[in-house]
Amino acid sequence: MKILADKIKYGIFLDHYTANLLMDKFIELKRLPDAVRVAIDLMFQEDFDHPLTRELALFSCLSLMKTEGWESSIPPLNIKPEPEDTGEEVIIYKQFLKNPFFDDHFDLTDAKHRLGKTLYVAGHAKDDLLGRSAQVLGLGMYEKWSKGVAVLEKLAASASGDNSKIMKETVDGFLTALQKKSEASGEEAATTEIKSLMSRAQTAQKLLQDAGALKDGTAVALSEQQVRDAVTATADSVTAQQRAAYEEAVTYRDKEISRQVRRFQLEERLRVLKLQREQLKNEEDLLFFFERKTTWENMLTPEARQAMAAQQAEDGSFYDYRVEDPQYEIPQILTPQTYTPFARWQRRQEDHEAKLRGYKLERFLGEYGRKKRDEKRARKGLKPIGVAAARSLPGDPPNWRELLMKR
User: Fold this and answer.
1) d(CA 292, CA 282)
2) What is the C-alpha to C-alpha distance for residues 369 and 407, in angstroms, rounded to an integer?
3) What pLDDT digit, counting tens, does each position of 46-92 carry?
4) Segments in 31-90 forming alpha helices (H)
5) What is the pTM of this model?
6) Are strands 214-215 and 166-167 parallel, antiparallel or unpaired?
7) Closest by alpha carbon to 222, among 346, 126, 338?
8) CA nearest 166: which of 220, 116, 202, 128?
């Protein structure tokens, strides 16, 4: 019942079937205050269109009124006691701000007023003996005296018809409540107004009594009989509607389960594809590690690059001369030359010409040395040795031995 009363926090609004189940169960368990609280909740929503719901609400309210001390059995709606005035400033946290306006509906806090308005709204939804009696009795508890007197006068004006009959018990209850209000009123103007209303109500009662429009009996007994009649009339339709609602709920549940299973399957597939994508990316990074190593290092900040090099040097996975030796300079890497047959032939020709120049110089120095040697031997009276054999040069074409012998 706490959840049902707090609409702002929980947002529970009863449908007709649930309200019928609750009121029927509370009546069976003799928990009439809880059944009336369900009826009051329906009154706040002004939802008495279903005949069985309306009859159960009237029976709950009329049955509770027959018990002693029923006014204290209905708790107020979330009313907190006012704090004591200690003279100090007190800051109170308010979850919801309310305008200083009394709407005479949702702002009703008195249990008697809420029960009276429930009787009036439920009775106004049906135009029969019990409905008219519930209206008059409810207006008396609701303390809407002028409106109640107007209803009695309207019935007295057409007392000869069947649509003007009302139960004598409820009219007496209205007049009793009005008499108590007249005795409790202290202001002279209010007392005069209530006395005027009392006189009009008694006149209407006399007219109804003279016309035979006041019916004997109790409203509770009449309400109980109408509840049984409503059950007989609406049992099949209510059962069929609820069975259809259950089937619709089962269909919706199966549809939601299928949708969630499909969503879980898609999420699992996406997870597998993501893992495969990460695995392929790792394999690609491994295959093209050396091609992308420089690019990755350039993407790092100097601090991150320094920390990476320190970690690699610590675990022995990499030795960086730039970290260990600040004087280390990276050697310049020359661009490789393009290979062609002509370049190879040209390179061999250049090497051969360089060797030939070296041999010519050696030969010149050799002849000059031999000449000086023969002159020195001649001064000493020795025989010259003669011209030495020509030195062989490399046999690559041209044949330098043949050229030298020809000379």
Assistant:
1) 13
2) 20
3) 989 999 999 999 999 999 998 887 777 776 555 555 667 777 777 77
4) 32-45, 51-65
5) 0.62
6) parallel
7) 126
8) 128
